[in-house]
Structures are given as C-alpha cells and as structure tokens.
Amino acid sequence: MEFDPLLADPTRLKILALLASCDWADFSFVCDAAGLSKSALSKQITKLEAHEYVQVHKGYAGKFPRTSLRLTDTGRTAIDDHLAALQQIVIQSRQHRPPQ
C-alpha cells in the first residue's frame, strides 16, 4: 500500500472514485459529477489512461458520438492502495497526538 503521487491531485482522485462505483461511465456523467469541463476532464483522462488507470471506449449511440470510461484493474489497485495509505496516515496521526 503506497501513496500514489498521480492521485495526490484531488481531481484525478475524484475521477477514479467515481469510476470505482460503476462498470462503465459516460464521459458526460463524469464531467457533471466531477464538476469539470469537457476539456479539463479530457486532459485528466489522458494522464490516467497513460498510466493504464482508465480505459476509454469511443463509439456511437445512434448517430451521436459517445465516450465511455472505466477503471482498469491497475486503476482499481492504485486507488485502493492510495486510500489505504491515506487511512494509515490518519491512524498514525491519531496514535501520536500530543498530550493535552
């Protein structure tokens, strides 16, 4: 379990957390849920995809283009390990409180 520097960015952490709760998510849903513009989400997805944390599928729903996103096994391991490392920090901070 390690703290992941890529997920130190709260935006990327939020994206992975959203994707962890579903199989595939529509790009527009993630934009809205994360409070991001399409261009901002696209930039973050490019970084996450480069680390193989996210898989992107581009297709069509009828005549309309549709982009779907999913968390890969690598991405799921990364977010699980990152959250466990954060939890460990919280536990340690509670154990080492100064006397009052």
Structure description:
- The protein is of the alpha+beta class and 100 residues long.
- It has one domain: Winged helix-like DNA-binding domain superfamily/Winged helix DNA-binding domain (Arc Repressor Mutant, subunit A), CATH 1.10.10.
- 55% of the residues lie in helices and 18% in strands.
- Strands 1-3-2 form a 3-stranded antiparallel sheet.
- A hairpin with a 2-residue loop joins strand 2 (54-61) and strand 3 (64-71).
- The longest helix is centred in the C-terminal third of the chain and has 23 residues, at 73-95.
- The two termini are 32 Å apart.
Mean pLDDT: 93
Number of DSSP strand runs: 3
CATH homologous superfamily annotation: Winged helix-like DNA-binding domain superfamily/Winged helix DNA-binding domain
Runs in which pLDDT lies below 50 for 5 or more consecutive residues are none
How far apart lie the N and C ends?
32 Å
* CATH class call: Mainly Alpha
As for the number of domains, it is 1
- Helix fraction? 55-70%
By CATH, the topology is: Arc Repressor Mutant, subunit A
Helices and strands, in N-to-C order? HEHHEEH
**Which overall shape is indicated by the principal axes computed on the Cα atoms?**
elongated
Main sheet: strand order: 1-3-2
